[in-house]
Backbone:
């Protein structure tokens, strides 16, 4: 059983890494060890964050295509990097983590958006993820 707050912290670390990766040309596998030096974390946090990072990086094209299809009145290039990565992490969990209920993935994404996103990010993230959840089931 994951320790309390471990997965939330792992989602935060995954978001931080993926956001930083957007500004580099490094392969994610090579950049990850340096990230952990800069952002030390408990082993359980690292393990789940690594799974999220790997999953998002390996499925990025499909995740982005699905996210772009769920945007309403919003051009894909207008989505901020923070918000895009929050959506990627949440959608990866919704599609590939059977032990994470969709509602939990969405709630966690909204919390990340409140902390790291623009003022309108929580509402935007919630709307996009709700559309993606409706379209998948």
Residues:
């Amino acid at each position: 059983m994951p320790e309390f707050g471990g997965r939330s912290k792992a989602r935060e670390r995954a978001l931080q890494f993926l956001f930083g990766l957007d500004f580099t040309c490094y392969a994610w596998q090579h950049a990850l060890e340096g990230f952990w030096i800069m952002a030390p974390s408990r082993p359980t946090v690292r393990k789940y964050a690594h799974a999220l990072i790997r999953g998002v990086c390996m499925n990025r094209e499909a995740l982005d295509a699905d996210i772009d299809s769920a945007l309403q009145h919003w051009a894909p290039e207008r989505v901020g990097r923070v918000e895009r990565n929050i959506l990627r992490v949440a959608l990866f969990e919704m599609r590939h983590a059977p032990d994470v209920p969709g509602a939990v993935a969405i709630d966690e994404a909204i919390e990340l958006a409140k902390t790291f996103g623009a003022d309108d990010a929580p509402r935007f993230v919630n709307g996009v993820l709700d559309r993606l959840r409706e379209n998948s089931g």
Q: What stands out?
A: The first helix runs from residue 6 to 21.
